[in-house]
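Subject: Sanity check before I submit

Could someone independently write out the structure tokens for this chain? I want to compare against mine line by line before I put it in a report. The sequence has 454 residues.
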Amino acid sequence: MHKRDGMASDPDETGTDALARSLREHVTPLDDAFAPALDRLIAQIGSARYVLLGEATHGTHEFYAFRAALTKRLIVERGFNAIAVEADWPDAYRVNRFVRGVGDDADARAALSDFQRFPRWMWRNEVVLELVGWLRRHNETAGRKVGFYGIDLYSLHASMDAVLAYLDRTHPTLAAEARERYGCFEPFGDDPQRYGHATSFGYLPSCEEEVARQLMDLHAARVLHAGEGHLAEDEAFFAEQNARVVRNAEEYYRAMFRGGIASWNLRDTHMADTVDALCQHLGQRDAHARIVVWAHNSHLGDARATELGDDGELNLGQLLRQRHPDETFVLGFTTYQGTVTAAEAWEGPAEREDVQPGLRDSYEELFHRTGIPRFLLAPSATPLRDELARPRLQRAIGVVYAPATERLSHYYHTRIADQFDAVVHLDETRALTPLERDSEASEGELPDTFPSGM
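---
Independent answer below. Compare away.
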């Protein structure tokens, strides 16, 4: 696969049309309930223990709705017992306590209240609200309870607070020592980027040694709670994982100012390590622990099948495929046009943006030309595999959408047959509805702008 400048030549439009016509014979059309694609996916997933569900944007309703529908079936029919999402560990753990019936929250909306960091709409939205309520009801009668966990590492200060709160309850002497260690961050206030800048350029010493020692102590303390029951073991694991987030976030924020791909690789390695640690923890009481992962296509689609991978990037999907080659299944999503919930700039308000039609020589354009509005494709299981392993553009919209610089900001070349085990294409999609929507908006309708800070 070639580099960005010249990976793909100008497409032969007739050839693209011919490929699109051929694809029509090898896809499974979807109806509004996503059937029979869900049946086919359940069969294709088989005995996989790690099912990775992507998204082409962080703000498309149908992506969330499809993932929720498939996740429920994996829980009910295949015994999956954890959902791991691209979110911060302490914020998601409040949801975990609620769905397991041990938290103080009265309802699912309250359980989602810790998701306050931009972009709030990723997890404070109507689809996730319904899913969390369903998980609580499922767990009330299920023999195998399902947890909800975050795998990201942005929660430096929230994770420090969680470690201290846990030690205050269980090991007051260790809490005093932890406060002294974490006090290393006090000169930088609550801004982790300020810490990263100052320590990367040598203005002040880093806290690397302190956070590493604290993680070692939490790991040792966790052993003390073995055999004390599931709740005590879960709380000890929660605390140790928060200490791991602090250690890895400390390194991540320093890496941000060194440039290059180091910070991306650190983040995705942390995600993969968290999934593995979670599976190991759950496996202590359930030998058949299985995890559904929700994250962006760019994290879950195998980086080795992208131009970014050629430049040295790795990602969560690649790492899990390498570590668990026969137990990992990756589903990607694409859309051609519609609307999306996104911000115009980082930390900006959530807005409903129009998604431009897919660019020429993109997978989005190719799938649009099939004339089938919604379908499931298993690219490696078709006679067209070689064509679908040819580099084409693929769109990736995160929490910021910049249509004025669409090609530069949101497209990269991929080989979709190597990137995903299956792909769901939804030709026209609509914006995700955040919980904090305009009270005057019609039911099911997204207002143009939401309050700042989402």
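---
OP: Matches mine. For the report I'm noting this point. The first helix runs from residue 13 to 23.
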